[in-house]
Amino acid sequence: MGEKFDAIIVGGGPAGCAVGALLSKRGYKVALLEKEASVGGRASSFQHEGYTIDTGSHFAAAFEASGMKAIFEEVGAEMNMVPVTPTLMSFDLETRRYGPLTSKEKLGEDARDDYRAVRKIIKEMTREELEKREYHEISANEWISRVTSNPKVHDTFRRATGFAGASMSEVSAGAFIETMHDAWNSTHVVNYPAKGGCLSFSQALADRILANGGAVYTETAVKQVVIENGRVTGVKAIKTYSAGLTVTKIDFDAELVICAVPGSQLFSIVEKKALLPDLVSKVEAIIAEGTIYCGLLVGVKEELFDGFGDGQQFFQFTVGLASEHWHGLVTVPTYIDRSLAPPGRHYLICNSHGRLPLNRRNESAALHEKCLSALRGIWPGKFDENVEWLLRAEYMNVLYPPRIGRSGPFRPSLAPTGVHGLRIAGDYSYPCGSGYGSALKSARDCVSLIDSSATQTA
Ligand SMILES: Cc1cc2nc3c(=O)[nH]c(=O)nc-3n(C[C@H](O)[C@H](O)[C@H](O)COP(=O)(O)OP(=O)(O)OC[C@H]3O[C@@H](n4cnc5c(N)ncnc54)[C@H](O)[C@@H]3O)c2cc1C
């Protein structure tokens, strides 16, 4: 027998923390179990050379319209966000022009009008319309082509969305439409936390679990979800102390267990044979498409940015050649929160945005070189001398692109699992691909299903 809780949440990423905060707010005695030393998951932060560096997520898009803000408000979590305006900039290595990605100067008059036409159609769609199944059966490119064939418009959306590195001909129109709809219906398309980097999202939610009398166990890895006669009864976990020096087995009992681990790790804690075969095969299809991000994390001297951007924002910009498919994405979080770096310093994050399937990790070196040459192209003869440290991220983490005909209207967090009391949450459970939006929407779906079964039981 282990300690008894009403609900156990396995995984302390954004989805697990949101489920925990929502359930504890409803009066459930909750335990959140996270295998790492802190919550945050793929949207966490780490310390290096006095810098706080985001491991994955660099911003929250569509904070309002995606429903994220509503979740924070419902649970009473404080989240002070700074809007990024104008949203996304671009640096063209050929023309050396820096400015908003969708400016008239960049797009030209015709393409700007077509871009606005696409925007108007999507912005005015109802939720019911944009969730149509048929949009998940065609590509984003195919859908945009119904409005315009202008290559500049297609290229702009490719740069702006960056769905886990997948191209617009690979991702579903459904994911594209919903993502852009939420972005354009928010007061600000992109926000960044005012303090503490991206880890602060999950931290704020986990704090609510504690405030509501729940428990958050870090360095606690769940080894097995215990299922007896088709019902969950709890989990078996291992707690490590002091960087793995001591290991203790602990059991937790609960009749409700929510698995909020990445899709790729679901079957390491839940036996496939206990689950409905349809659920297993669909989740397997989603996780088989996982891709990885490779990029550079670079600490640079303040002087590098002297005069950069002519007073325009430089939080985030795409960099590349208009003629090439490849483009990098440079993010400078210290533009917003100076306390993320030692005084007088900035850091950059350059994501390759080149899709690298899991079995081709060894090609990351080539993508690193592309990122590096792009940075040298922005600051010719000046970049290297201003670098203080540079990390090559070989394998940052898995992302799930929203593929055509793949996830579609299938949402594991709303689907029956075949096991009484077992529920699923996580970004892969929502058909818009990886991101806070999907993670938190899956949490909302998962909790609404728990709410409705509680009502039926009552
Ligand atoms: C490089 C990169 C850049 C990104 N950029 C953005 C961005 O700019 N904007 C955006 O919105 N999103 C971005 N994302 C995506 C975003 O980070 C993810 O979509 C989000 O973190 C998913 O949340 P989650 O809770 O579903 O999963 P996760 O964040 O993966 O959380 C799952 C948690 O489960 C824990 N866990 C796993 N197994 C166990 C176990 N057995 N026992 C206990 N705990 C366990 C893990 O340690 C982890 O903390 C990015 C991701 C990456 C990798």
From TrEMBL:
<dbReference type="InterPro" id="IPR036188">
    <property type="entry name" value="FAD/NAD-bd_sf"/>
</dbReference>
<feature type="domain" description="Amine oxidase">
    <location>
        <begin position="15"/>
        <end position="445"/>
    </location>
</feature>
<comment type="similarity">
    <text>Belongs to the carotenoid/retinoid oxidoreductase family.</text>
</comment>
<dbReference type="InterPro" id="IPR002937">
    <property type="entry name" value="Amino_oxidase"/>
</dbReference>
<dbReference type="Pfam" id="PF01593">
    <property type="entry name" value="Amino_oxidase"/>
</dbReference>
<dbReference type="GO" id="GO:0016491">
    <property type="term" value="F:oxidoreductase activity"/>
</dbReference>
<protein>
    <submittedName>
        <fullName>Phytoene dehydrogenase-related protein</fullName>
    </submittedName>
</protein>
